């Protein structure tokens, strides 16, 4: 974002002051469109806003909001944190324009928070360290929100709006900076500019920010000059099938474990098939054949006793994607993973295939290659990358704080393959530092995904896409999106078995949207 702004300003086609004006206007528009009642007149008195303005350009946006709200007849109170004389130039200019309209009070010291809307313009992307001094302010905001605001003579606040990010949240990691004082506060609305920041999607960001509104401030022409290596995961046009033989869509091999514990691998296999792999074979120890034969139709079944049998099976070069992990068993995983990786095919490792190497990650890393994908949840991640997990768990003391994205990138570099770190804020990274965020948060939340077997289905979907020749990063990112989209489509009551069965609906909708676009 900063690189995009700099590129825009260096082009001299737009000034920082213009961007700030668009940002402030966007905030006002978002407030008025979110709560249409503010467009009409108040039953008693005028609508009232209190704007808390900080020492940088976030504060500058706040002064613009103050001016624009007062122009539509709001009663506006401005409270500043820091010395306005030391504001950066654009923010200073907007402070000075506001001063011709109204006074600027001091935020520290006695204050009465009394407003329909409180706008937090204290800190945005520039926050680098906690602001302990502001603790009592956030306590007051919390109390005032509990109170609500019922009219000119009552104290309290009705709604809390953040400009760009809730102050105290690190925009790069989504983590509250240690000692950040807004604990317990949840914003009603956060208005950000150009694109969502990483901090809106990861860790504490989604919950704290509340509803997120993105305002276009005209930076798109300069976007390509920015670091574009982090993209949101989403649908991919290649998900649609356009003819071809079943072998043109790949053959996935899912390896399962012993008798009586086959459910996870069967879920993965069905998900791989539903994701469009041409063929899927489940390879299980001979003693598990009867159980699986009774439960499978379109998924093929093969006896696969040991490393030798796997080596033999992989002589068939049409088997182009392998999935190991779901209910594989730790012993079997330790035996089969090196053989599978030695074949050099697209290979996904999940669950037991990761836990089998707890405490001896190098034994795994030495076999990994660029066509492999690891899909750990946080526990599995900690078993393979204990130091990175510790850094994630440590309190965030400074911004930019160590984020899930940093952790995934470092893990991918160390492992030499794509790493997908699961969670509501799934992140995916490659050894070269490319990254995707598949955040099922805020309006895209999929809370019913927190159910047994849902990770096995994800492993199957990604394996299916690998079989369809998606590159590891694309398979992981598109797979994570498909998985969450299926859950959103199904809604409440979802269990893992439902996920593969709802995929056809997701594909049908993508087809329909593509036809619409094609006219
Ligand atoms: N740069 C641009 O072109 C635009 C910036 N905009 C706004 O500008 C914001 C970023 O502005 P700034 O970079 O000035 O940063 P902020 O306004 O977020 O922070 C202000 C300054 O406070 C200092 N600071 C950091 N932590 C502190 C602490 N704990 N205690 C005291 N001071 C601390 C930093 O040095 C920083 O420069 C964005 O979030 C956005 O709201 C918008 O106006 C859109 C355009
Ligand atoms: K803010």
UniProtKB/TrEMBL annotation:
GO MF: ADP-dependent NAD(P)H-hydrate dehydratase activity; ATP binding; kinase activity; metal ion binding; NAD(P)HX epimerase activity
Protein name: Bifunctional NAD(P)H-hydrate repair enzyme
InterPro entries: Carbohydrate_kinase_pred_CS, CARKD, Nnr, Ribokinase-like, YjeF_N_dom, YjeF_N_dom_sf
Catalytic activity of the protein: (6S)-NADHX + ADP = AMP + phosphate + NADH + H(+); (6R)-NADPHX = (6S)-NADPHX; (6R)-NADHX = (6S)-NADHX; (6S)-NADPHX + ADP = AMP + phosphate + NADPH + H(+)
Cofactor binding note from Swiss-Prot or TrEMBL: Binds 1 potassium ion per subunit.
Domain of life: Bacteria
Similarity comment: Belongs to the NnrD/CARKD family. In the C-terminal section; belongs to the NnrD/CARKD family.
All residue ranges annotated as the YjeF C-terminal domain in the record: 230-510
Assembly with partners or alone: Homotetramer.
Known role: Catalyzes the epimerization of the S- and R-forms of NAD(P)HX, a damaged form of NAD(P)H that is a result of enzymatic or heat-dependent hydration. This is a prerequisite for the S-specific NAD(P)H-hydrate dehydratase to allow the repair of both epimers of NAD(P)HX.
Residue ranges constituting the YjeF N-terminal domain according to the UniProt record: 1-225
EC number: 4.2.1.136, 5.1.99.6
Residues that coordinate or bind AMP: 422-426, 455
Binding residues annotated for (6S)-NADPHX, in chain numbering: 57-61, 124-130, 164, 264, 377, 456
UniProt keyword annotations, A-Z: ATP-binding, Isomerase, Kinase, Lyase, Metal-binding, Multifunctional enzyme, NAD, NADP, Nucleotide-binding, Potassium, Transferase
Positions that bind K(+): 58, 120, 167
Any single Pfam family the record assigns to this protein: YjeF_N
């Amino acid at each position: 974002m900063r690189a995009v702004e700099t590129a825009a300003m260096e082009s001299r086609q737009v000034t920082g002051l213009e961007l700030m004006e668009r940002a402030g206007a966007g905030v006002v528009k978002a407030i008025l469109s979110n709560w249409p009642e503010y467009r009409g007149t108040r039953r008693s008195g005028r609508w009232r806003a209190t704007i808390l303005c900080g020492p940088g350009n976030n504060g500058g946006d706040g002064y613009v909001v103050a001016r624009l709200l007062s122009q539509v007849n709001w009663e506006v109170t401005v409270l500043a944190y820091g010395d306005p004389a030391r504001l950066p130039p654009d923010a200073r200019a907007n402070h000075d324009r506001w001063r011709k309209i109204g006074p600027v009070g001091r935020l520290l010291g006695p204050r009465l928070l009394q407003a329909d809307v409180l706008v937090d313009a204290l800190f945005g992307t520039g926050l680098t360290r906690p602001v302990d001094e502001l603790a009592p302010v956030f306590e007051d905001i919390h109390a005032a929100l509990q109170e609500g605001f019922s009219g000119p003579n009552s104290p309290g606040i009705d709604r809390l709006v953040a400009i760009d990010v809730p102050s105290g949240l690190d925009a790069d990691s989504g983590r509250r900076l240690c000692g950040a004082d807004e604990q317990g506060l949840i914003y009603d609305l956060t208005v950000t500019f150009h694109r969502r920041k990483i901090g809106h999607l990861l860790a504490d960001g989604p919950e704290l920010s509340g509803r997120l509104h993105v305002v276009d401030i005209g930076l798109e022409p300069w976007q390509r000059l920015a670091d574009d290596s982090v993209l949101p995961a989403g649908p991919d046009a290649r998900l649609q099938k356009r003819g071809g033989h079943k072998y043109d869509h790949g053959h996935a091999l899912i390896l399962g474990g012993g008798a009586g514990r086959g459910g996870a691998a069967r879920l993965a296999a069905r998900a791989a098939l539903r994701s469009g792999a041409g063929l899927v074979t489940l390879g299980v120890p001979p003693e598990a054949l009867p159980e699986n034969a009774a439960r499978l139709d379109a998924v093929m079944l093969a006896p696969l006793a040991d490393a030798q049998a796997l080596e033999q099976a992989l002589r068939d070069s049409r088997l182009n994607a392998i999935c190991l992990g779901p209910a594989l068993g730790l012993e079997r995983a330790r035996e089969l993973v090196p053989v599978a990786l030695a074949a050099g095919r697209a290979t996904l490792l999940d669950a037991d295939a990761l836990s089998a190497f707890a405490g001896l990650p190098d034994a795994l890393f030495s076999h990994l290659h660029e066509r492999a994908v690891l899909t750990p949840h946080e526990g599995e991640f900690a078993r393979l990358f204990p130091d990175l997990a510790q850094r994630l768990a440590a309190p965030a003391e400074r911004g930019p704080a160590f984020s899930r994205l940093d952790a995934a990138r470092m893990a991918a570099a160390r492992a030499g393959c794509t790493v997908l770190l699961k969670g509501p804020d799934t992140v995916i990274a490659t050894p070269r530092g490319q990254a995707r965020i598949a955040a099922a948060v805020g309006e895209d939340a999929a809370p019913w995904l927190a159910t047994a077997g849902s990770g096995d289905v994800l492993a199957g979907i990604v394996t299916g896409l690998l079989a369809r020749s998606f590159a590891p990063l694309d398979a992981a990112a598109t797979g994570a999106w498909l998985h969450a989209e299926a859950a959103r489509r199904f809604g409440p009551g979802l269990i893992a078995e439902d996920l593969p069965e709802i995929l056809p609906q997701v594909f049908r909708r993508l087809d329909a949207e593509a036809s619409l676009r094609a006219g």
